[in-house]
C-alpha cells in the first residue's frame, strides 16, 4: 500500500513538475530586448575603443579640463558637516521641507511673495526626471482630456515620461536647422494655433539638446501669447546656474511668466549645477491660486508618489539644504558653478576659433550663440559616423556635442576632425 501511494505521488509530482515547467517557460516568451539608449550606447562604444586618441563628447555630465568628474568643494564641505549627524529615518512623502524651501527661492526668487503667501505646492522629487514624471501623472489624473506640447527636438526622455503617464503628445516647432537657432516664427504660430488651455513643456534655460534659448524679449512675447491663449507652461529647469554662471539670469524665463501672472509648473534638478548626479535630488513645484489650493495639490502629488517610491532619499537633500541655507557655502557654490559655466563657454569659443583657423568655409557662429552643456553642431548622421570610425570621436548621431567633454587638450583634435568631415558640405 505504501509503495502504491508513493508511486501515485511520484506521478503527480512529475505531472505537476512538467506543467510547471511549461507554464513558467511561457511567462516571458514574448519579451524582446529593449532598444539601447542612444546616449548610453555611445559611452559603451567609447569605453570599448582601445584607441589612445578617443574622445567622448556624448556624455551629459560635467568634466573638468582634464576630462575628469568633479565633486564641488561646497558639496565636500557640506558632507563634512553632516557626517555622523543624520539618522536614517524616512523623509516625509513630500521630502525635506528645508531643501524644498531653499529650492523654491532659486526658481521663484529669494523674497518671492508667492512663497510667503504659501501658494506653491512643492515636493522633493527624484531629480528632474522624477519631477517631470510626477507632474505628467498629476496632469493625467486631474486633466485627463489634456495633451502635452513638446518642442522639436527635446531631451529624448521627455517623450518617454509623458508616454508612460499616458498623456497624449503633440509637438511644436523650436529649432531651425538652417540657421541653427530658434525657429521663433513657427514656434509662435504653433502656440497661437494650439487649442486654448493647452499644456506646453518649456526648457527654462540651456535647451537640451540644442543649446538654443529664446532671448528675453522673445520670452516676453511667448508669455504674452500664452496669456492670450490661456496655456499652461511647465518648465523643466535642469541647468539653473550652469548655463550662464548666474542662477538669477538662468531663471529669467520663469520670472517673466510669474510677472505676467501665469500659474506654472516647474521641475528642478541638482544633477548638473551641483554635480549631484547620483544623489537623484530635485523638486517639483506647481503654482496655485491660493494657499488652500496649494495644500490640496501637494497632497495629491504626495498621493501619486506613494505607490511609486513612497519617500525620496535624504542624503542629497541634506547636502543641498546645508549649502543653500549657509551664506558662506552658498557663495562658494555660486563661485564654483560659475567656474563650470565659464569653462563650457570658453570651450565653445576655442572650438569655434579652431574651426575658423583651419579655414572652414562653413559658419560656426552657432557654437558660441548656443548656451549650456550641449552644442547642436549641425553635423549629419553620416558625418558623425565618420568622426567615430575615422577619428574615434563619440557623440550621438543627431550631432549633439557635449561641451563638457571638450578640453584644451582635445579641442584642436576635435576641430580638425570636424573640419575634415565637413569639407565637402
TrEMBL record:
The keyword Aminoacyl-tRNA synthetase does not apply. GO terms for biological process: amino acid metabolic process. Keywords: Aminotransferase, Pyridoxal phosphate, Transferase. It comes from the Eukaryota. One of its GO terms (molecular function) is pyridoxal phosphate binding. CDD domains: AAT_like (cd00609). Residues 53-418 form the Aminotransferase class I/classII large domain. It catalyses: L-aspartate + 2-oxoglutarate = oxaloacetate + L-glutamate. InterPro entries: Aminotransferase_I/II_large, Asp_trans, NHTrfase_class1_PyrdxlP-BS, PyrdxlP-dep_Trfase, PyrdxlP-dep_Trfase_major, PyrdxlP-dep_Trfase_small. Its EC number is 2.6.1.1. Its cofactor is pyridoxal 5'-phosphate. The keyword Amino-acid biosynthesis does not apply. GO terms for cellular component: mitochondrion. Gene3D superfamilies: Aspartate Aminotransferase, domain 1, Type I PLP-dependent aspartate aminotransferase-like (Major domain). PANTHER family: ASPARTATE AMINOTRANSFERASE (PTHR11879), ASPARTATE AMINOTRANSFERASE, MITOCHONDRIAL (PTHR11879:SF54). In eukaryotes there are cytoplasmic, mitochondrial and chloroplastic isozymes. NCBIfam families: PRK09257.1. Homodimer. Belongs to the class-I pyridoxal-phosphate-dependent aminotransferase family. This is Aspartate aminotransferase. It comes from Tetracentron sinense (Spur-leaf).
Amino acid at each position: 500500500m505504501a509503495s502504491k501511494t508513493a508511486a501515485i505521488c511520484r506521478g503527480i509530482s512529475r505531472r505537476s513538475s512538467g506543467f510547471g515547467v511549461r507554464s513558467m517557460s511561457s511567462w516571458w516568451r514574448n519579451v524582446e530586448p529593449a532598444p539601447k539608449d542612444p546616449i548610453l550606447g555611445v559611452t559603451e562604444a567609447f569605453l570599448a575603443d582601445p584607441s589612445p586618441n578617443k574622445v567622448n563628447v556624448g556624455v551629459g555630465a560635467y568634466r573638468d579640463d582634464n576630462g575628469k568628474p568633479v565633486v564641488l568643494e561646497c558639496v565636500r564641505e557640506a558632507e563634512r558637516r553632516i557626517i555622523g549627524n543624520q539618522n536614517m529615518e524616512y523623509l516625509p512623502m513630500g521630502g525635506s521641507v528645508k531643501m524644498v524651501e531653499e529650492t523654491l527661492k532659486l526658481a521663484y526668487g529669494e523674497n518671492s511673495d508667492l512663497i510667503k503667501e504659501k501658494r506653491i505646492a512643492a515636493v522633493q522629487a527624484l531629480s528632474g526626471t522624477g519631477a517631470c514624471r510626477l507632474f505628467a501623472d498629476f496632469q493625467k489624473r486631474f486633466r485627463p482630456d489634456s495633451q502635452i506640447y513638446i518642442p522639436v527636438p527635446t531631451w529624448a526622455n521627455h517623450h518617454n515620461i509623458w508616454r508612460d503617464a499616458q498623456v497624449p503628445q503633440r509637438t511644436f516647432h523650436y529649432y531651425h536647422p538652417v540657421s541653427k537657432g530658434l525657429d521663433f516664427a513657427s514656434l509662435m504660430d504653433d502656440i497661437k494655433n494650439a487649442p486654448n488651455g493647452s499644456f506646453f513643456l518649456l526648457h527654462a534655460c540651456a535647451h537640451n539638446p540644442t543649446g538654443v534659448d529664446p532671448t528675453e524679449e522673445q520670452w516676453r512675447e511667448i508669455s504674452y501669447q500664452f496669456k492670450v491663449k490661456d496655456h499652461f507652461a511647465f518648465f523643466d529647469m535642469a541647468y539653473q546656474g550652469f548655463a550662464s554662471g548666474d542662477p538669477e539670469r538662468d531663471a529669467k524665463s520663469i520670472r517673466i511668466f510669474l510677472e505676467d501672472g501665469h500659474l506654472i509648473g516647474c521641475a528642478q534638478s541638482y544633477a548638473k549645477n551641483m554635480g549631484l548626479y547620483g544623489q537623484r535630488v530635485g523638486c517639483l513645484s506647481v503654482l496655485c491660486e491660493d494657499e488652500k489650493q496649494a495644500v490640496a495639490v501637494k497632497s495629491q502629488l504626495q498621493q501619486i508618489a506613494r505607490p511609486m517610491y513612497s519617500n525620496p532619499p535624504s542624503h542629497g537633500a541634506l547636502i543641498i539644504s546645508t549649502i543653500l541655507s549657509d551664506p558662506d557655502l552658498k557663495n562658494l557654490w555660486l563661485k564654483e558653478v560659475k567656474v563650470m559655466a565659464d569653462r563650457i563657454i570658453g570651450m565653445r569659443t576655442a572650438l569655434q576659433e579652431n574651426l575658423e583657423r583651419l579655414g572652414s568655409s562653413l559658419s560656426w557662429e552657432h557654437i558660441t550663440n548656443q548656451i549650456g552643456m550641449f552644442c547642436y553642431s549641425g553635423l549629419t548622421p553620416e558625418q558623425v559616423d565618420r568622426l567615430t570610425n575615422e577619428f574615434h570621436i563619440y557623440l550621438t548621431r543627431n550631432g549633439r556635442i557635449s561641451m563638457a567633454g571638450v578640453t584644451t587638450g582635445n579641442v584642436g583634435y576635435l576641430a580638425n576632425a570636424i573640419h575634415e568631415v565637413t569639407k565637402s558640405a
